[in-house]
Design a protein that fits this description.
four-stranded antiparallel β-sheet; 17 helices; single chain; disordered N terminus
Length: 673
């Protein structure tokens, strides 16, 4: 149906009493409106706009005299109006400015309680009739309004609001807005140290339909969606007609990957055990892990990857609490592991802290650990004067050591993308808002070449349809030009935007891992260092514990205190069990009999570990017993064996003497009990 005559249609007037009196409480509309179809994605002059969906009566009572109208406003002139309209997807649409209305055919005028009815309307987008420009781009508000007869009379009973992006190919002036995606593959810890996993929740995530599977599939598909080139004359047929300038384009992503996730998936491939009672059970994700890791290797072949430090540590909190060494180990171990498991990927030396914010000490730590550039939220470097248009992503972090190349993710749109993945959000509306908002950004300065960066939350969980639509649509509309993070970092920052010093807001500080947790991690680090000090360098048996310690700093522990506490307790048990593998065999409070004024003090040390242990036996006594060499005897205990150390003691008087035996590490720290 054309809107040629639709301008004459207006909503019927509300019956008396349909609107509540001033101060009277309003009620929730009884009808829910859901859009299932809104196409084409980027309509052109003469195209047919198809809007389809359904209405559902959520009340008990029937609603009669139903009427549906499609409304379209004039062009949106500013972002504040856009934001207000987008904030309430089911708000009223009867007051759209300069709106045109069109009645929508409906199969029945009455909808019983709990029942649904589908609707479809087609509109020919004739610029002359609808006042749509052919030489510029704009965004219009679009809404579906439902009226019906209730106890209040004829009144609005439901609505849905969205946007119509309008970017005709006949426009010459507008410049495409560059858009880059930082696409995270990050999870939470699933193992403490051993091959027995604490849970099997990673298995469904990498399986078909799972969170990580959907993220990988969406990015892989969008990266290869451009149509094949036309055949040349004489090579398989005649030349195809000229390709439309808005044909789908490939959309590359810059992957942001936690190597801990790769480590876990790689372990899963070979089979694994999951903790259960009365005994561990076989994990279910081995086959899915093999498929997923192979697909990831293919997707990252020759493409850019940001390697997060192993476990994705809470960098700012860890550094402030004296754990910068662990952050450095996580960064080095992460790059090494990612290179080994994704050998064909192009690894970028880019630091991306949790939530895109950090303080100066954390910046120094990341750069000492190998980062040469940063990705931050634009909230970390706010402009001194808020510009009229959205600034480009390229910026610099000014430090005493020089300017650091920095890409700023656009927090408003990144947040909208995150919220669009919510369970209660309509994916179709979320995608339409994303497209319209990017066009609004372009329309702020249509002749300027700018690029923005979108960085979804690290562990976001979008539906497969939503994730695929976000990336694919980036390459299917005329106002967006796919970019990569590397392209943004290689560009020049805007000289017109002056930024404030690095900001680390109080909200970021409150979101950190607690100081109590980090104190526990520091204690575990000390205990683990005692164990590694008595064993050969890079001992394989302690590597799982070392990796587990890095997992204890994961930003994934934020907000889940109960799970974090249980995990720390399990790690302590595993560390204690391995530490106890080297111990004094003699029981506490046992006695040793010496004849005469002196004799040997025999101390037996057991080593149940797989590597030789270098320890020192420290004997301590009171002044009535003399111990040569300050009571210290160094010894190496072979793997899986026991060794007896003979200490010498000289009694100055007769009697019973208290004597303590303690193991020390080679650097003199106490080891064990």
């Amino acid at each position: 149906m054309s809107l040629a005559a639709a301008a004459a249609f207006i909503l019927p007037p509300l019956a008396a009493g349909a609107l509540p009196a001033s101060g009277q409480a309003t009620t929730t509309p009884p009808v829910t409106v859901v859009l299932s179809t809104l196409r084409p994605l980027a309509p052109q002059p003469g195209d047919t706009l198809v809007v389809a969906g359904s209405i559902t009566n959520d009340s008990v009572a029937a609603v009669s005299d139903l009427a549906i109208q499609l409304r379209m406003s004039g062009a949106l002139g500013d972002r504040s109006t856009f934001d207000a309209f987008a904030a309430d997807p089911h708000g009223p649409v009867s007051g759209l400015p300069d709106s045109l209305t069109l009645p929508v055919p409906l199969g029945t005028p009455t909808l019983a309680g709990g029942h649904s009815e589908r609707f479809t309307v087609s509109v020919t987008l004739d610029p002359a009739i609808l006042g749509l420009p052919t030489s510029s781009w704009q965004v219009r508000e679009l809404g579906v309004s439902v009226t019906g007869l209730t106890s209040l009379g004829i009144a609005p009973v439901g609505s849905v609001r969205t946007f119509l992006p309008w970017a005709p190919h006949t426009a010459i002036g507008p410049v495409r807005l560059g858009l880059a995606w930082l696409w995270p593959l990050v999870d939470t810890p699933h193992r403490v140290s051993s091959a027995v996993w604490t849970n099997d929740t990673l298995a469904p995530q990498v399986a078909s339909g799972g969170r990580l599977f959907s993220l990988l599939t969406a990015a892989s598909s969008a990266a290869h969606q451009a149509p094949p080139p036309p055949p040349s004359p004489g090579h398989g047929g005649p030349r195809r007609h000229e390709t439309h300038r808005f044909d789908a384009r490939d959309v590359p992503v810059t992957w942001a990957i936690d190597p801990m996730l790769l480590d876990d998936v790689n372990v899963m491939r070979a089979g694994y055990q999951v903790a259960s009672r009365p005994k561990p059970v076989q994990g279910k994700g081995a086959n899915a892990a093999r498929i997923w890791l192979d697909a990831l290797r293919s997707a990252t072949d020759g493409n850019d990857v940001v390697s997060l430090p192993y476990g994705d540590p809470d960098v700012a909190a860890a550094v402030r609490n004296g754990l910068s060494t662990l952050v450095g180990v996580a960064a080095t171990a992460g790059r090494r592991l990612l290179t080994a498991l994704l050998p064909a990927a192009n690894t970028l030396d880019v630091g991306w802290p949790p939530d895109g914010v950090l303080d100066q000490r954390a910046v120094d730590a990341l750069f000492s650990d190998g980062a040469t550039s940063l990705v931050l939220s634009d909230a970390a470097l706010p402009p001194v004067v808020v510009p009229n248009e959205t600034p480009g992503a390229r910026s610099s972090l000014v430090t005493a050591a020089g300017d650091i190349p920095t890409a700023l993710s656009y927090s408003i749109l990144s947040t909208a993308v995150n919220e669009g993945a919510g369970e209660t959000v309509d994916p179709r509306l979320a995608l339409q808002r994303f497209l319209a908002e990017t066009l609004m950004i372009e329309a702020e300065a249509p002749s300027d070449r700018r690029s923005i960066l979108i960085a979804p939350a690290r562990r976001w969980d979008p539906s497969a349809t939503y994730a695929a639509g976000l990336l694919a649509d980036t390459g299917k509309v005329p106002w967006l030009e796919p970019r990569t993070l590397a392209q943004i970092l290689d560009s020049a920052p805007s000289a017109a935007i002056e930024r404030e010093p690095l900001a680390y807001p109080p909200t970021a500080r409150r979101a950190e891992l607690s100081a109590t947790h980090l104190e526990e991690v520091a204690h575990l680090q000390h205990s683990l260092s005692q164990l590694t000090n008595i064993l050969p360098p890079n001992d394989a048996e302690t590597q799982p514990l070392s990796a587990g310690l890095l997992r204890s700093l994961s930003s994934g522990w934020r907000g889940i205190g109960g799970q974090r506490h249980r995990w720390i307790g399990q790690y302590e048990q595993a560390l204690h069990a391995m530490t106890a593998g080297v111990h004094i065999v003699s029981a506490p409070y046992s006695t040793i009999t010496m004849t005469g004024q002196g004799g040997k003090v025999a101390v037996t040390i057991a080593n149940t570990l797989d590597a030789p242990a270098r320890v020192t036996v420290q004997l301590d006594a009171n002044q009535r017993l003399s111990l040569p060499h300050n009571g210290r005897v160094a010894v190496t205990v072979p793997a899986g064996q026991q060794t007896t150390v003979d200490g010498h003691a000289v009694a100055k008087t007769s009697g019973v003497f208290p004597l303590a035996a303690q193991l020390l590490t080679p650097n003199g720290q106490k080891y064990g009990a």
